[in-house]
Amino acid sequence: MKIAVVGAGSAQFLGELGDLAALTGIGPYELALHDVDASRLAVVTQLSRRVAEATRTPCSVTDHAERAAALDGAMAVVVSVGVGQQRSIEPDFSVPASYGLRQTVADTLGIGAIMRILRTAPVLAGIADDLCRHGADDALYLNVSNPMAMSVMALSQLCPQVPVVGLCHSVWVTATSLAQLLGYRVERLQYLAAGVNHQAWFLQLEHEGQDLYPRLLELAHGDEPFAATVRADVLRRLGCYPTESSKHNAEYVPWYLPWPEQVERYDLPVNPFEQRRRDNGQWFAEAEQIASGQAAIPLEEIPSGEYAPRIIRAIVTDEPDEVYVNVPNAADWVPGLPSWGAVEVPARVSAAGVEPKVVPGLPPQCAAVNRRYLDVCDLAVRAVVTGQRDHVHHAALLDPNTSASLPPDRIAALVDELLDRHQELGYLPEPLWR
Q1: Domain residues for 26?
Q2: What's this model's pTM, rounded to 2 decimal places?
């Protein structure tokens, strides 16, 4: 059995890669790694081999400079690509900042995410095409690349013959943080979340049948540090707790980043590109130390709980598991959200495959926030699929944070400057050139 990883050297992918090199109970398998950066590929290959050896897993790790060779014969492919790496991310922060536009993460929604899908979608589609060319169109395509919702939507249109499952740990991480906040072990909580990636909503939060929402609301209205967060404010105003961190949530709505007093009140990191670059460098330095044997393998962190390894294990062993997935809403998994959008819902995984579950309708105010998010995604994806540059402008005009921060003429100038910059860097699809 062969599992392929494309973009194996991506930052913050260490936990998932460690889990993939330590899969137990599935028999001998090959972990085929590919990355366009040869130095990163060498490090993660050696790191994965060390993990497999330390955990006594029957895993043979291979490295591939060519993507097609890694994909050939794979039963599953895990995709984590960052096209252009820091070189392409830098203008996504610096150019908007020169216009006075504040961003915090720029990878899910907003002008940074719009630019990211333009350069990422063609690569994701190319991976799907490679799978088809090598007779592996029935392989499990597990995408962990951002922007998640846009990526799933783009792939569903560009390569409908290769079903994609988008994976993000935001629901699980949020559940863990809520458990710590409320004083419970996360495995003792019962919860249900649904919505869109990074902006799903906890519809149920219980401990042994006791509703924990009254306690959560009490904390949100109190004077503890939790109350001074964007997510607590969203809870106070909409009545539902959102997934992902406050710095993420702040740029998905028009209520925080356009206003200096809100930025200060919630201590939001504005345009933190240099900090992100330092963090990524530190991650790679730590990976190098583990790979070379200078640092111990953090075996206590394996398995990490990431979804891709859990899905593969559940399918191969037919031992059912439940995870959260991002999939097209064509089967109305989340009533009230558009069928063309990508939604995040729970799913049962077994030998039968990944089976998303229908969830109750969202509170109308939460669905309304999600619909605006999806409208931006739709227009950005249309730009990729049709090659119409105007749709990039339309997506930016509709984006909550961008439209609340800048007048239309400034948005138009910003979009054109960013598109020209990415064209110069070689990351803009040719149909979008001018």
Answers
A1: 2-87+106-169+280-313
A2: 0.95
